Amino acid sequence: MTVYVVGLDGADWSLLRRWMDEGALPAFERLCAEGVTGDLRSTLPPITFPAWKCYSTGKTPGKLGVYEWFSFDRERCEIATNDSSDFRSREYWDVLADADRDAAVVNMPTTHPPRTADGVLTVAGSPASERGEFTSPESLKPDLLDAVPSYRVKPNLVLGEASPDELVTEARTLVDQRFDAAEWFAAERDRDLVHLTVFITDTVQHRLWDRPGHIRRLYERIDDRLGELLDDEGTEAVFLMSDHGFVEIDETFLVNQWLANRGDLVVGEDSSRTVLSSLGLTEERLKRLVDRLGLVNLAQAVVPESIQRRVPNESGRLSVQDAPVDWEQTKAISLGRGPVYVNDRAFDSDSSKAAYVEELATAFESLETPDGTPVAAAVHDPGDIYTGEMALAPDLVVEYTTGVDAPESLGGEVFGERLEWLATHRHTGVFAAWGEDVAERDEAAELSLYDLAPTILHRLGVAVPEDVDGDVAFDVLAGDAAARDVEVGPATATGTGDRRADQRDVEETLKDLGYVE
What we know:
Elements: E1 2-8, H1 13-21, H2 26-34, E2 36-41, H3 48-57, H4 61-64, E3 70-73, E4 78-81, H5 92-98, E5 103-106, E6 120-123, E7 135-136, H6 140-147, H7 164-188, E8 193-198, H8 200-208, H9 212-231, E9 235-241, E10 245-248, E11 251-252, H10 255-262, H11 271-278, H12 283-293, H13 296-302, H14 305-308, E12 318-319, E13 332-334, E14 339-342, H15 350-366, E15 376-380, H16 382-385, E16 396-400, E17 404-405, E18 409-410, E19 423-426, E20 428-435, E21 445-448, H17 449-459, E22 464-465, H18 479-483, E23 488-489, H19 503-513
Parallel strand pairs: 1-8, 1-9, 2-21, 5-6, 5-8, 11-17, 22-23
Antiparallel strand pairs: 2-20, 3-4, 6-7, 9-20, 10-19, 12-18, 13-14, 14-16, 15-16
């Protein structure tokens, strides 16, 4: 018997309930009718990195040391992409392995490169690549490909060039591959727990929010496969969750351009980028060319990263990570949709820096979009929303108003720019559970991402690590699981490991997905 956790990146009740009411998602409807449902509060910011790891560890980013896709080294003033080795905690399936319970993980972002405990079978998710190591143990790869031929981590198309029909067709194929792998792990490898993530839901929603019929086709395929799990006699329970919700973008706010206009972010001239742009050589044109010639892998392997990063895109915008930042003059920088870092080099004392942080927070709080909507719902001191040592923590966390998207791009207007995304993340995602020792109730449950790991561990009769931030959600449990006291186990905090990921792969994936310019 297997407990499944089905993670749907970015799933939102505003879509699911509409299609359930129309009779298009019978398996989702059954899961909700026979089990328990509710909203699931994400972390701040509600972004893939680190949200998935907040789920799998039960901890806030302050204990994980990761707050977004990118990190900032204050001493060196260096920006780097995060990968699995940067997270300072074991995950709940590692705890299961310690208790001789067998688990498998399929396609979860933040598991690249795979570094789970011995006994946990892992197929890494985006930004992993089939070109490199993406299973743990490595010997699992040929068996996986034999069981699920043509399994691939990423879409087999250029996202920016694909038609809506092509994107949805590819997405449905990836859904089948994720579920096929999960069912294979359960049936052939006798796993007590299998987690699978469908990440392509996030990609499709970002790009096709104005085409709900196409998004519905994707969820109808997910519903087919979810129904198979519910009907399978080997399924003990199903937990359904998303790392965050989704909402249409009402306004784009280029936070780093705003900082630059204030004089707080100072960027020098990149002569090589200007020359390439004047020659008409853009990132999009190169991507289309190498894709048509089938040379994507070769180009990434032989073209130096320093050259790849300098190729401009057609919009004229660039990722702040690629900008020639003047760190002697720059006071602040945003590395994503929320975290803002203040540069120690720009201040001669702690008190002057503290005064600037306070002034910057006030400026964010008073900022409005052109139609008068507050840009920020709240501006947080990280110590007020995170726990732990908060290694590499930002100085401020801006909680943007729902519908305001704040990418890290430089170039263009502060407000009103149109990027690839039509919709963005919001703080509330979805939760549902069904099966043995799961409650049946009409009242909605309220949980956070941090509650899932301790709840699932307790449901499986395994001790909950003493250093988790979440709680066991007893109102979603029934039977023995609801009656038992929580057993507390050892802490799961760790140091960081050796960085094994190729940052070129990670950054190329982030650009393909639209997370950076």
